[in-house]
Amino acid sequence: MRVILGVTGCIAAYKSPAVLRELQQKGAEVRVVMTNHAREFIGAATLEGLSGHPVVDQMFQPELNADIRHISLARWGELLLVAPATANALAKFACGIADDFLSTLFLSIRCPALLVPAMNLEMWRHPATRENVRILRERGVDVIEPDLGYLACGAEGEGRMPESSEITVRALTLLASAQGSRGEDLAGVRMVVTAGPTIEDIDPVRYLGNRSSGTMGFSLARAARRRGAEVTLISGSSALEPPDGVRFAPVRSTQEMYRTVMNYFEDAHVVIMAAAVADYRPAEVSAQKVKKGSGSLSLELVPTVDILSELGREKGERILVGFAAETESPVENGRKKLRQKNLDLIVVNDVSRRDIGFGHDMNEVMLIDRGDSVRTFERDTKDRIADRILDRVSAMLADRRLIPEIPGY
Ligand code: CTP
Q1: Strand pairing of 374-381 and 362-369?
Q2: Residues with catalytic function
Q3: Beta pairing class for 270-273 and 207-208
Q4: Who is most buried in 7, 111, 154, 187, counting CB within 10 A?
Q5: Ligand 1 and 324: CB distance under 6 A
Q6: Taking the domains of the chain in order of start, what are their residue ranges?
């Protein structure tokens, strides 16, 4: 695995050595290219020492041999990773400007490119940057969304560079898929995924349910399987076909989902609760069909078991991922649920929107973790969002060393 690490001039450049080290630990050989401005933030000696190779930062560096000129380096690299990527770097890459070594290299590569933007909030939100990211993505360049949090400029918002473990997972997955291998970063991981609605019977013909179709949970199960995990998919009523190679356990009520999840919980490394679980059930289920009367009818409802909270109490070393369906204050409510249910990661959905979420193939979610990193994934297919959620899970597993080594890397 040969990775070219591009470093551009931004305060987050101090995190680049950590990315370099992690890539090397996973078996990659790394060569570093810096821009002139990057030198203002980090010394070339550090990156040279760690990579064991000269750092390239000038178009015309006479002391370097032909192997390091942009064309030969472009041929050498199997992945170009630019972390951090400034707004200026994104703009140059999108416009095809080649006025320094890195931008010239960008035009010469045939391998995949992964860009990790980090900048001030206003610069990230500027229409020019939005447009440049859109253009780059349209051309097949992978761009990681920055984290939301406190920025070096003192503001709070999107713009922070994500953790090195997450960048490494994404880089290795990209490398693996470019090389035609399945990139099984989740091999050896036992994962339980729940999906769909739970249904609470009122009588033999009527029930309480919700509009969940199961798509998000099924996408997660399929993606986790593709990435090598041993997956158990526990689903409430859904019209979807269970993915190949996944153990499938259909359930109906919340109580049944609870019992089934508990069966597999003991052995699981990761549990993802994507199911839309009913919060209440009728106090009694009538054995006979309830007959129509002349007046109004009241139904007494009692709370169901909160499966995720129960799992949170016994989670131990496991990674627990919850979903939050919110119609207002998504970040605040998401953080609250993460703490209350003792989760590692929460995926927040805005269920007030009609163009995403329930019953759609598209979604737009926010990911919040225990370190309070908040990340928004713009409107995308549920399959791609599933992979982004699994990138985070995979990085957490690697951080905790729950699985000894990732085979294939
Ligand atoms: N959940 C669960 N058991 C329940 C209800 C919810 O395990 N009885 C899980 C869901 O699968 C989801 C998370 O808890 O991963 C949050 O679900 P959500 O409906 O957003 O939150 P609630 O805790 O039900 O709170 P509220 O409906 O008041 O927002």
Answers
A1: antiparallel
A2: 153
A3: unpaired
A4: 7
A5: yes
A6: 2-178, 190-283+300-400
Nearest CA to ligand 1 atom 9: 308
Give the position, in ligand 1's atom list, of the atom nearest the Cα of 304: 8
Q: What's residue 407's pLDDT?
A: 39
The helix or strand, by DSSP H or E, that contains position 134, with its residue range, turns out to be helix 127-138
Instruction: Please give the structure tokens belonging to residue 393.
Output: 């899970």
Output the six-digit token pair for 3: 């990775």
- Pairing state between β 345-350 and 280-282: unpaired
Domain 2-178 has CATH 3.40.50.1950: yes
* Atom 12, ligand 1: residue with shortest CA distance: 323
- The alpha carbon of 242 and the centre of ligand 1 are apart by a number of angstroms equal to 23
Tell me if 304 CB under 6 Å of ligand 1: yes
**pLDDT tens digits for range 298-345:** 999 999 999 999 999 999 999 999 999 888 888 899 999 999 999 999
Mean pLDDT in residue range 345-350: 92
For the beta carbon of residue 298, count every other beta carbon within 10 angstroms.
Answer: 6
pLDDT digits over 196-239, tens only? Answer: 999 999 999 999 999 999 999 999 999 999 999 999 999 999 99
**pLDDT, tens digit, for every residue of 48-103?**
999 999 998 777 666 655 555 777 888 899 999 999 999 999 999 999 999 999 99
Q: What are phi and psi of 214, to 5 degrees?
A: 95, -5
Amino acid identity at 39: R
| Cα 363 to Cα 342: distance, rounded to the nearest angstrom | 25
Among 220, 323, 352, 367, the mutation site with the greatest number of ligand 1 atoms within 8 A of its Cβ is 323
So what's the pLDDT on residue 405?
Answer: 46
Torsion over CA: 128, 134, 138, 139 (sign): positive
Residue 268, both tokens? 């699981």
Put simply, whether the predicted model's pTM sits higher than 0.85 gets the answer: no
Q: How far apart are CA 300 and CA 169, in angstroms?
A: 49
Would you call the peptide bond into 84 cis, given omega within 30 degrees of 0 as the criterion?
A: yes
